[in-house]
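Retry 2 of 3 after timeout on previous attempt. Resubmitting structure tokens to design endpoint.
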């Protein structure tokens, strides 16, 4: 009987211990089972954001304005411009000599349209310097002389002009400016007209210039430009040789007005 009672007591003690231990074990294992689920739910949005591709709106193409595009022009900008250029000689004041004697008449030079290439750099937000390169062909004639109207010939003019400009509205889409500069003009491929003029020489010339214009930002780094320059220069020309019987000398205040419109790109 004592042995049976001891065995029953041991069984009863085991049942009680098992009943107490079961909830504790369940409480300990529950967080272990649920923790990975909770962690995955927190990390999932972060992983999704890291894996998501960049929005196409962040891409900035050649002909596109994006969040990183600078508005307007300012310090450090370098511009290349291609323009259609119109050169209109004014021929304000002409003087003619025939064999050393002054004669009545005037010089007339034709207008011309050609492409122009311009390079411009901004030292500050307001101040830039630019250099234009273009070459135009012009016909030259002497009008109203005692020998009638004389077709003198033709020449190509190469007038590189450097200009210092002040820009009024830096970092704005519309930016007007004014400038002052200087021109040095060479004449090449000079061709006499023949007949009375068998030989033709045109001297190097130059002078000051002033200009006005504006830049307008179209899209991205592309701009539209309009520019007008007034150059002040005299042309000196000689037809034939001394002692030829028809040595003609001419001075002409060429003073061309130069108007251009074109597209430019900022680097």
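Retry 2 succeeded. Sequence:
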């Amino acid at each position: 009987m004592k042995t049976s009672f001891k065995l029953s007591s041991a069984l009863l003690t085991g049942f009680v211990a098992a009943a107490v231990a079961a909830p504790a074990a369940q409480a300990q294992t529950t967080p272990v089972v649920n923790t990975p689920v909770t962690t995955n739910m927190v990390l999932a949005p972060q992983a999704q954001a890291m894996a998501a591709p960049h929005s196409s709106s962040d891409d900035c193409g050649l002909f596109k304005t994006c969040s990183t595009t600078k508005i307007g022009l300012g310090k450090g900008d370098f511009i290349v411009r291609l323009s259609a250029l119109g050169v209109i000689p004014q021929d304000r004041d002409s003087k003619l000599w025939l064999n050393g004697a002054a004669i009545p008449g005037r010089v007339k030079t034709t207008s011309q349209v050609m492409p122009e290439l311009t390079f411009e750099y901004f030292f500050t937000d307001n101040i830039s310097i630019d250099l234009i390169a273009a070459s135009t062909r012009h016909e030259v004639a002497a009008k109203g002389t005692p020998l009638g109207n004389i077709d003198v010939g033709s020449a190509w003019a190469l007038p590189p002009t450097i200009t210092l400009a002040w820009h009024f509205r830096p970092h704005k889409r519309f930016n007007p400016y004014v400038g002052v500069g200087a021109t040095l003009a060479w004449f090449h491929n000079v061709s006499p007209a023949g007949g009375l003029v068998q030989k033709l020489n045109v001297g190097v010339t130059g002078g000051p210039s002033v200009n006005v214009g504006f830049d307008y930002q179209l899209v991205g780094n592309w701009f539209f430009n309009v520019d007008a320059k007034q150059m002040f220069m005299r042309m000196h020309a000689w037809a034939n040789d001394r002692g030829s019987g028809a040595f003609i000398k001419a001075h002409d205040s060429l003073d061309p007005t130069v108007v251009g419109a074109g597209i430019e790109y900022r680097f």
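Attempt log closed. Confidence is low (pLDDT under 50) at residues 1-8, 27-33, 35-45, 49-57.
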